[in-house]
Amino acid sequence: MPEEHESLLEHMPLEEVRLERIDGYEPPDGWDPGELEDSGPQPPPVLVERSDDQKYSLLVHHRTVWSARGQGKMALRALVVRSRVHIPVAHGTVRNCLEEALLFEGLLSEGLVDNRSRLADMLGYSRARITQVLNLLKLPDPMKKRLLLEDGVSEFQLRPLVRITDPGARQEAFERLMADNLTGRQMERFLSDRKAPVSSREGRDGAQRRSAGERQPARQAARQTEAGARSRLLMDIQDLMDEEGLPEGGEEVPEREASAGYGAGEGSLAEAGEKQGQREPSGEAFDRLRAMITTLGRSLRDGSWEEDETVLRDLNERDLLFLKGVALMQRGRYENAVEALQEVTDAAPEHSLAYHYLGRCCNLLGRLDSAEGFLRTAIDLRPSDPDVVADLAIVLEKQKRYDEATSCYRVARRMRKAKAAGRS
């Protein structure tokens, strides 16, 4: 993955989403998920939550979801586009022309942008360009599935295919394109030689004309009542995603923001740091556990880690139970995971990681009040962990508590910048 792409993804506010709630194209026949195993970390998928059934439409990075399902995962971290500020970030991760079309269609259909003209303004495109990209969705589904695997094919190469009305001629042209990687102009010449029938300009234009009113769902009006708080949130999420460093010498978090982001009574971050020193002497041990979760990877889901003597010999009984809870969560057994993790916190009230994962489980179960409580406890125990603060921001945003979410996003960003500066 390119370095600038990794830097962009690092600042995305990701959410844990259950795979069973994600709808999208199935992989084409014969696709092998093993093709991705040696290609490094996969980019998080980009989703939009549907207003009609509370499921998620998969817009970008289908192969990440296909691979996760092939590995038996139950949930993964994703960028859920909930507001306009997420749109440029989501678009910046797109490497596939068909997924770009799916992203545009999802944003329009869910009312996250009013119309094509507004979307064009946001991305620096012309309206005609937005329409050209959306026209790719007129291709038949088998072609679209194959194109989801072809990042090197451009919309310009595919543009002539959209105008072909004869299915046989379209399929022949598509196969020729895929076999010989024809440029757009070569495709035009090929079709001219074949004299493939194309639809009339009048027909194309008629299919493209849609009023802005037809594209806006009813929930748009409700969103307008929250415009003030939402706009403040958008600016601060943008701060989180900003890749520029902090001013020289760092930047203090105002006490007002710290109390809003962490909960009443926390005071400043300096005071919270004193609490950390008093209440959690085992921060390095928790760092080791967090690294172990990443290292174990798939073995946590399939249970093979419990047979690895090199892993077990380094774990005490409490940490063994904690990893069992994490494994249950990764297999989608959230209720069982909650029970295991609560046993850990009962025996070790200072275990901030257990509270963090309890918060994640409750978020996945839709128990937002409980999720918030567990995450705030994790922050109280270890206020320097940006991952917990970012997860709390997501829970607060889901509860429409935008001012508090704003503070959490801002603090998480500063923590990540401080960590990065400390490593450099």
Question: Can you walk through the features of this model?
Answer:
With 424 residues, the protein is mainly alpha-helical. The protein has two domains: 174 residues, no CATH class; 198 residues, Serine Threonine Protein Phosphatase 5, Tetratricopeptide repeat (Alpha Horseshoe). A hairpin with a 6-residue loop joins β3 and β4. α8 packs antiparallel against α9 and α20 runs antiparallel to α21. It is elongated.
Please specify the SSE layout and strand pairing.
Elements: H1 3-10, E1 15-18, E2 22-23, E3 46-49, E4 56-60, H2 62-70, E5 75-80, H3 86-92, H4 97-109, H5 116-123, H6 127-134, H7 141-147, H8 155-162, H9 167-180, H10 184-194, H11 201-208, H12 212-215, H13 219-224, H14 227-241, H15 255-262, H16 269-279, H17 283-296, H18 298-302, H19 309-312, H20 317-330, H21 334-347, H22 352-364, H23 368-381, H24 386-398, H25 402-423
Helix pairs in contact: 5-6, 8-9, 8-10, 14-25, 15-25, 20-21, 21-22, 22-23, 22-24, 23-24, 24-25
